[in-house]
């Protein structure tokens, strides 16, 4: 019966129906000549041929019924996640296309399943071996997953899955509990002064399978912060050593020269040497004062300051073109530490004048946003390349030969102490824009 598998279903249906129709009609005519009533021949022919028709139909469609059962079974396997089944069918036509499409679907599902399994293995390996402690907590505050770092940090190496997260915190060191009680992200220290570890806590909420879960990340920062601290100290020492040598070397040389002039009685040349010594000493004094101001910046003392009076005081110390878009009266009043803000803007305006910009191209623009005051210091100097823009706000970073690298860093420190921020960007047509936002 395999030759039937190669025929279209419509042709099989038509052939069986035509054959039985011809045979049935002939048998009915012949029986009608033998029986008293014509209808009895038709009934007897139908009674004789109907069982044969059922038999042949079932015989013809038995392979197809088996195929349909196999299709149903493989689909059930796919639904259960088993994609190892395939079907074999020698026929063509509609059933052949159906089987071929089904097998292609199975291959695609197998490939996707294999890819997902490999990705899951890779992800699990990465999660388990990352130094960041990771815990997944379900809505009932039970730990669903904990990697190796979390087990080592909070469970003495034992599995944490299934445990109550709150009970786990009760057994954790007190700084850990306090960090969670504060809520949100933050840093905390565990241990004493001689052996302390610094950690960063991050908490994220998301929906998993329609339920709220919390992902807890604990990252140890001790080694990284220690390395950064050492690098910072090395840089500070290099900058201070450079400045001290630039001032002390000529002071020592001029002091020796002054002593020789006194010994020779050449007093007329002494004022020049002494003036140079004074200049270098004052430069060194200013350098040390700037470092002390940056290191000991106090918390800002907020007070109501009228912009017009503040900017007039600022203009008496450094030149700039003012573009103010704030109205007079109450709208022209802000709350900030006047001394700190003055120091910050003085640094920015002096940098603008030292950028190579013409004095008339140094502008200060003041405008009010819905929630803050925005102060822009603009120049038409040489601007900054990408590398300088990325590091200009870092302490001790300077491209000037005699720069301390504290001007922009101090301005950033003051802005952030007020709850604001500072940004640098190059202007179209050349020059730099230093933008400072101060919350209202």
Uncertain regions spanning at least 5 consecutive residues: 1-5
Q: What is the number of helical segments per DSSP (H or I, 4+ residues)? A: 13
Structural class by helix and strand composition: alpha+beta
Strand segment count: 12
Radius of gyration: 44 Å
Examine the coordinates and then state which fold CATH places here, giving the name of the CATH topology of the largest domain: Heat Shock Protein 90
Average pLDDT level: 77
What would CATH call the homologous superfamily of the largest domain? Histidine kinase-like ATPase, C-terminal domain
Spell the H/E element sequence. HHHHEEHHHEEEHHEHEEHEEHHEE
Q: What is the CATH architecture assignment of the largest domain?
A: 2-Layer Sandwich
Structure commentary:
This protein folds into 4 domains: 2-112, no CATH class; 130-220, Beta-Lactamase (2-Layer Sandwich); 225-295, Helix Hairpins (Orthogonal Bundle); 303-439, Histidine kinase-like ATPase, C-terminal domain (Heat Shock Protein 90, 2-Layer Sandwich). 55% of the residues lie in helices and 18% in strands. It has 13 helices and 12 strands. The protein has a 5-stranded antiparallel sheet with strand order 2-1-5-4-3. Strands 7-9-10-12-11 form a 5-stranded mixed sheet, covered by helices on one side. The longest helix has 43 residues, at 222-264. It is elongated and about 165 Å long. It starts with a helix and ends with a strand. Mean pLDDT is 77; it is low at 1-5.
